[in-house]
Structure prediction request, 692 residues.
Amino acid sequence: MTTAVHSAGLGRFGEFGGRYVPEALVAALEELDEFRTKAMVDPAFIGELTQLHRTYTGRPSILTAVPRFAEHCGGAQVVLKREDLNHTGSHKINNVLGQALLTRRMGKTRVIAETGAGQHGVATATAAALLGLECVVYMGKVDTERQALNVARMRLLGATVVPVEHGSQTLKDAVNEAFRDWVANVDHTHYVLGTVTGPYPFPEMVRDFHRIIGVEARAQMLDEYGRLPDAICACVGGGSNAMGIFHRFIDDAGVRLVGLEGGGEGVHSGRHASRFSGQAEPGVLHGAYTYVLQDEDGQTVESHSVSAGLDYPSVGPEHAFLRDSGRAEYYPVTDDEAMEAFRLLCRTEGIIPAIESAHALAGAMKIGRELGPSGMVLVNLSGRGDKDVHTAASWFGLLDDEATTPPGDAPRPADDEAATGGGESQT
Amino acid sequence: MTGVSEVLARTKKEGRAALIGYLPTGFPTVEQSIEAMVAMAQSGADIVEVGLPYTDPLMDGPVIQTAATKALENGVRVADVFDAAAAITQAGSAAVVMTYWNPVLRFGVDTFAAKLRESGASGLITPDLVPDEAGEWITASDDHDLDRIFLVAPSSTPQRLASTTAATRGFVYAASLMGVTGARDSVGDQAQVLVERTREVTDLPVCVGLGVSTPEQAHQVARFADGVIVGSALVRCLLEADSFAAGLDELRSLTGRLADGVRRT
Prediction:
């Protein structure tokens, strides 16, 4: 088994990664690489970011044992890493603050971002407000309608939200539009890419800004429990929260790294977002060589998940490497399984998770049963579920009157198409 | 010497720039797109850029993306570009294929190159593949004697202009502005500056694309470039017409006027 992450060369993790972009963007990527390389060893930069994490984000995030939930996990002990308690409600703020500080260092005055259904967009709008940067967020039109509240949050923070009406009008198309904006405005604009994919140096840089999750968690596990977990479960859309918690544990061979993908209606249904269990093959999408849901002509296939944050046809290239090297395992979690885990955590522990994170909880239920009572599972609770209340309430039939459901919010699973995309990007 | 190089040598001898016209394969249908490409060649386009529609065209504006999306909805396949290229070369014109990288990768780079050679096309324009990542394509294009047309941009550093043009064969595609495909009110000064900078590092022909849509703009660019590339304005002829026949008439007309533009002294 390969345990060392290969980062030699131009952003390659084994054969995955690289920089497949228009020439117009290469200079900006080289500039970004130069600035972030210097910044990551600059005590002034690290100090400012650390201070922001302590006084603004609320780090370190705590560990929470969830014994009543664990009763449904084969008796294994389950501990949550509480990224949901971060300012803005998810792990996304870790990366965004780092990139916003870099934007200022590069002398750029404008940031753009893509967002699945809002969380990365909200985090970017937040950081932009904090640092006085102009902010434009691209969001699929379907998602803007489903997540009207998040659109309002971004606008309250001063951001311009641009609905994208091309293609499937979801996250993939928002990424395309953000790249187009960047090509045209790269002289004064930084693209705050939201996950561990895209062209080099984004996968490595975003991972490094999220690596704090695993660094904290490992120290906290040893300090509070005197041991490392047997397994770590994290949901994987693009893969940022998972890479954030996995990375510090890669050399701990006894710790299983388990990524949970959006299994949608099941991988055999064709309506899923499982890049490692479905029809995905290695290919190029959005600047990186990695696993991509694609047809036999190399055209991108639309993905499906109840969680918009997992509803993405590609995955970070380092995950592709970890998967093929055997260091990490990836499993699909269906919409039904995720929502059952969501319900359980609410009822047993008084914690409403993001639907994305509920996929990781469902993974813990499976892995916990494999490990048995002596096992310990650490779950990265990547975000909180405030944003998902309407989706979940609709899913479980908890609304007294359909009229109370916001326009475009996800209805019951029986309503098929519209059941997608209820959550914000938490990956 | 391949078709594109021959054409560019001939136009240079004639003391003018070449007109290069782009259309996506499969729009409105595969057969009609081939008919339109041949018509464009017969109306004065020296080289036809055969587009391979892709689901995620990062460098394309709304006109080309709309046509490409419709082509995909109509079932266009990768192999259709070989038929289009063959029809163009059989009609006596030079063809190059413009494609994002993943369809080539999935098809198999060497197989794609072999089919391309067989079709008579000169090579590929690859908007999201820079030479740094193009090892497999460089090998295949050498093996099958194909042109590899890489892009340079106003943001390209002197070092990258040198390394990119060193890897290029056929002609250098100078992206005249920072942005995506689509008509612009003016071409701007960046195009000429980029051509001049590129010529400092290579003897290859330099052709300018992005933003050129009118005969006047074609004339303006032809004064400093070896070729003028027009895409969105030609695609719009077919996209906005009431019928294919009407679109074809408009396409022939615009191509003719653009051809006059590059010939005007």
About this structure: The first strand of chain B starts at residue 18 and ends at 24. Chain B touches chain A through 40 residues (CB under 8 Å).
